[in-house]
Amino acid sequence: MNNAIPYTNIHTHQATAEDELSIFNAPDHFDPCTSNIYVSIGIHPWNIEKVNSTECLDSIQTNASAKNVLAIGECGLDKLIDTDLKIQEDLFKQQIHIAESVKKPLIIHCVKAFDELIRIKKELNVSVPMIVHGYNNNEQIAVKLLENKFYFSFGKALLNEDSNASKIISIIPIGQLFLETDDTDIPIKSIFERASRYLQIDEAALKEKIYLNFKRIFTNE
Ligand SMILES: [Zn+2]
Questions:
Q1: Reading across the β-sheet that carries 7-12, which strands appear in turn?
Q2: CA 1 to ligand 1 center in whole angstroms
Q3: pTM for the model
Q4: Integer CA distances (angstroms), 39 to 60, 63, 129, 217, in order
Q5: Please, is 36 exposed, middle or buried when counting C-beta atoms within 10 Å of its C-beta (0-12, 13-18, 19+)?
Q6: Taking a C-beta distance cutoff of 8 angstroms, is the pair 106, 75 a contact?
Q7: SS3 163
Q8: Which DSSP symbol is given to 18?
């Protein structure tokens, strides 16, 4: 049975291999109706100053209910960029409202702004799952995020044994865990191999658990 279960990759910027189930992070102004691949749509904080955000938000709102749009994002907060944090927060909140209106999860980019992220989740009383993607921060932050019922997606940092991601992945309850390749060419299989080693469960079992998480969170099955 496990052979039939695909590798689940919840965040990639690349066209994907056939034996994996993935969510393609669509570029701005992507029209989900032009294809049937699973996508997430959103305004990345890095792109705020490059796009017409009103237009982008309109198109996200229009397309958010499309069947193959599985999540809103990546969107979020980044303290290492020049864009004013207030502006980032405002756009992030508008995207949270869209996600709430269609009851779809959020894929979140967060750099050095976890207190703000948690505050916003509380302030808006967000009910859709919020998945922090590319997690590679310390245990203390992970614990706070867990207390606030965030989900986690781990990627390339797992290939470095000394990374925060590698050290703390085992504290994440498996029901709150996802894996991803993001903008790299690394095969998702390699990320699964590492994760299964750190979690001390075999790869087939891990594939199945992550697949079930995907079904539950992204397709309500
Ligand atoms: Zn990404």
A1: 7-12, 20-25, 39-41, 69-78, 106-111, 130-132, 151-154, 177-179
A2: 31
A3: 0.94
A4: 12, 11, 16, 14
A5: exposed
A6: yes
A7: coil
A8: T
Contact 169, 197 (CB under 8 A): no
User: Is residue 95 a contact partner of residue 126, using CB atoms and an 8 Å limit?
Assistant: no
Tens of pLDDT, residue by residue over 15-60, are: 666 678 999 998 777 787 788 889 999 999 999 999 999 999 999 9
Other Cβ atoms less than 10 A from the Cβ of 56: the count is: 21
SS3 content of the chain, % helix, strand, coil (to 5): 45, 20, 35
Residue with tokens 């052979």: 3
Ligand 1 centre to CA of 220 (Å) is 23
Domain boundaries, the chain: 8-219
Neighbour-count burial of 219, counting CB atoms closer than 10 A to its CB (0-12 exposed, 13-18 middle, 19+ buried)? exposed
Give residue-wise pLDDT tens across range 129-155: 999 999 999 999 999 999 999 999 999
Distance 178 CA to ligand 1 centre (A): 14
| Top-level class of domain 8-219 | alpha beta
